[in-house]
Amino acid sequence: MNAPTNKLKDSELLVRYMAGDEEVFRELVGRYKNPLYAFLKRFLNRQDLVEDVFQETFLQLYMSKESFDTSRPLRPWLFTIAANKAKDALRKMQRGASVELGVVADAGDVSIDDVVNLLTSYKITPDEEVSGDETAQRVREIIANMPEKLRGILILAYFEQFSYKQMAEILSIPIGTVKSRLHTAVVYFTKKWKAANRSNDK
Amino acid sequence: MSNLSKEEKEVILDFYFRCGDQERINQGRDLIAGNPEAAQLYANLEDSLRQLDSVKYEPCPENLVELTVAKLKLAASSEQARLESLLAAEQRKTAHIESPAATTSRSFWRNVAEVAAIAAVVLVIVGVSLPSLLRMRETAVCRANQMRIGRAIASYADDNNGTLPAVAMTAGSPWWKVGYQGAENQSNTRHMWLLVKKGYLDGKECICPGMKDAARATYTQAQLAKYQDFPSRWHISYSFTFTSDKCGKYQKGQRGVLLADLNPVFEKIFDRGKGVSIPDERTRVLLNKQLLKLMSANHAGRGQNVLFGDGSSKFMRTRIVFGDDIYTVRDAESYSGFEVPCDEDDIFLAP
Questions:
Q1: Residues of chain B contacting A189 with CB distance shorter than 8 Å
Q2: Is B172 on the interface with A (CB under 8 A)?
Q3: First and final CA of chain B: distance in angstroms?
């Protein structure tokens, strides 16, 4: 008799998942559905793409059983697949579309000094001035309009709290690039947030 | 102007995102605690990015989970099917390569099948050709017999002033009483019996292998001394040219027919049960269309070997040799066993 699937460790679960054990499919998907769904929602901001990539990610995990070392932690691996699938989905979607908003902002690195300077001059917007719903809407817009590379790193760092090393693996980029991109993402967001509130204040 | 070093700024950011290792995080905590400028930077960072928290995302919808699990099951089952077919193919391959028993058995049965197929073809060919091969052999042996008889006649002629082997046939005697051992010469086969009796010919050589019910035809000296003729119809399967006292001399290489396979016209006079034929005075053979067409029974009615005067033997599909029917007396349609050829050109091979 097998142990209940919800008691299994990730690695045990993964071994059975890779072996095509249908019993554990639901358990494994259940364990990672929310973080993965949230990540994809933030990153893609389009329900159809989110759902496609969500399914493709779990399928890919099953298909890549031959190349995957089941002793490695599952979460970063799952996010790696998801990030790649999401990027592919965006690329496909943008292929026919006009030049993306993010292209300009993506150009050039932002130094840590830029981040600090920006934050130093940052004026806190009083919460009471804007409703929670409005704030959320603005933030969503900013994230949606962020260059893909910055958006990805910001979500992974802020919401998923991956380490630099894990993010470097997930995004297949050097740790230095992870850091500079994260700084750029912070500057980008702060600038956009300020701008949004200024226009809103008028 | 910030007094923080670049390194310190980075430590604060790393601390904020909890992205560095534990030492780096501790370093950041200490810096913020001891340096107001660092604390301010951290506060500003937090203040800016906490806006991100305002975005609340709903949990993953359950139908998406169901859909994903369903797709996984589908992939697993198709994968399973693919694996099974691959495994089966591999096993077949392995069995073929590695198992000598399987290979032996396989090639054994393949060989059996091939041999069986070839055997079937051979059987069909043999089945079709064997009777004809046997007939060819019979015909060849028969022809050899006739040529042997031809040589025996020549030897006899050499020893007897060039005359054919002949017994004295009294005028008015029948020529068809084959097997009659009385003192009178009433059978045309008696001439040939001379050859056997006098040792020119072996009794076996007087029998065509194609003749049904043929006797063994080996004679003891006592039998040779006692018999005046072949013991029965089954001891002589050739019909000799009609010979009488007036029939001339034998000349080597002479034109003419010496003998042939058994005359088919007078078959009815033989008692097949007794193997002898002693027709009486009332016996008649009337020619009809059928009797005129018959070939010798020795070769199943296909034709007959004919021994010519020059000692050669030839298989002929017709009874007409040199323009004459060799089995009948010219113009004679009713036979009572006394008919004689009209002239030298009227060939008659009497039974």
A1: 48-49, 51-52
A2: no
A3: 151
Which pLDDT belongs to residue B263? 92
What is the average pLDDT across A44-63?
87
For A131, name the nearest residue in chain B, comparing CA atoms only.
B54
Q: How many CB pairs under 8 A join A and B?
A: 130
Express each pLDDT in B56-67 by its tens digit. Answer: 777 888 888 888
To the question of pTM greater than 0.80 for the whole model, the response is: no
Nearest-10 crossing angle of helices A175-201, A112-120: 20
- pLDDT at A106 > cutoff 70: no
Q: Output the CA torsion sign for A40, A46, A47, A49.
A: negative
Q: Which residue has the tokens 């534990």?
A: B22
Token couple for B280 = 């009486």
Q: Which chain B residues have a beta carbon less than 8 Å from that of A131?
A: none
Task: For residue A116, give the nearest of B4, B56, B72 by CB distance.
Answer: B4
Amino acid at B274: K
Per DSSP, the residues of B274-310 read: TTB----TT--EE--HHHHHPPPGGGTTS-EEEEETT
B300-319: average pLDDT? 90
Can you say whether the dihedral through the CA atoms of B245, B251, B256, B258 is positive or negative? positive
pLDDT at B334 > cutoff 50: yes
CA angle B272, B278, B284 (to 5 degrees): 95
Q: Compare CB distances from A34 to B6, B13, B59 and report the shortest one's residue.
A: B59
Express the helix, strand and coil content of chain A in percent, nearest 5 each.
75, 0, 25
Nearest to B69 among A29, A37, A167 (CB): A29
Pick from A70-74, B91-95, B224-228 the range whose average pLDDT is largest.
Answer: B224-228
Q: What value does the mean pLDDT take over residues B303-331?
A: 90
d(CA A72, CA A75): 9
- CA angle, B86 then B87 then B91, to 5°: 120
Domain ranges of chain B: 6-128, 133-350
* Residue A56: closest C-alpha in chain B: B68
Q: How far is Cα A47 from Cα A40, in angstroms, rounded to an integer?
A: 9
Residue A127 has pLDDT above 70, yes or no: no
